[in-house]
TrEMBL record:
Record protein name field: Luciferase
Record domain Luciferase-like: where: 10-304
Pfam families documented for this protein: Bac_luciferase
MF (Gene Ontology): monooxygenase activity; oxidoreductase activity, acting on paired donors, with incorporation or reduction of molecular oxygen
InterPro entries: Bact_Lucif_Oxidored, Luciferase-like_dom, Luciferase-like_sf
Keywords per UniProt: Monooxygenase, Oxidoreductase
Amino acid sequence: MKFVLSSLVVNLPNAVTGEALTAQQKFQNVLKQAMLAEELGFDAYGVGERHGAPFLSSSPPVILGAIAARTSRIRLLTTVTVLSVLDPVRVAEDYATLDHLSGGRLELIIGKGNDPRHYPLFGITEEGQWESLSERYALLKRLWNEENVTWQGRYRPSLDNVTTQPRPLQQPIPVWHGSASSTISTELAAKYGEPIFSSNTFHPQAKYKTLIDHYRERWAYYGRDPKDAVVGAGAGSLYLANTSEEAVRRFRPYYDAFTSTAAAQHNQSPFRDLEDNIKNGPVLVGSADFVIEKILNYHEAYGHQVLSISVDGLTEAEQREQMERFASDVAPVLRREIPSTVWESKPAASQQEGILSVHQA
């Protein structure tokens, strides 16, 4: 199994200490997270996209660009890019640029997002989000894969003989499809032969398993080998301690603070409280052994090769503690137990450097 540390750049007063970070301090915290994630051996760092408080993640390519300048190995993911409201020309340009600046470490996870506040900001109705996503993604693929594109659609002005610059470094830039609530996203992924990333954050396992099963069924429908279908999954927050009782006690204030926000309540999570989520939901709170067993249980249901976790909202010291505990006590076991073919090859720039080294020798 491979591991992603991700952030929505949630900036709430700390639920335990009451400390409130400025926006500048929070951005610096995210940069430190990403650098530590690389140091600890995480495979990727992800930044989501939101357009309203308490999130500061309205511009993932800018944040990931800053991370790219401070790291050298770790993959850079968007978790997710809300393509249903974005101009594909701008997305093509911004992320191709980031692909070059990161040395070919970029991977896009696209989706329609789960925060309705972004629709009026960008002139899209919630009812039209799926059609918008499908149209915009078809155009984005053409812009990255073709030159002299002529196109006409519903959600942006027509294009005549357009070649976006720069061209991506990776050919192609890998794209995942974020999956949280609808078979429309899993259908789109299967149609294009691309991996999915299940949100697996706010609801019981069965809801997400249904969507993953649909993805695999449609993958086979399009004539593809089932073993080639790749799945990633989130897990919500992480909190490890020497005992599960200690982890629950320490994490409870953070859980209660975030679930009381309007953004969290929009998702209408069915869990009554933290204990209910631990028992019946995806949150990873407990001893290392407990968390390992829970992840293995979810893997049995999903068959996912990549896991995304978050330490958003904790103090900086606790963030480091949780990342270090996960890297030392949980990740090695799961790497042994769950094979993963994802990210086995080096980024494009590293491959080119290797070729140059051979030629120079």
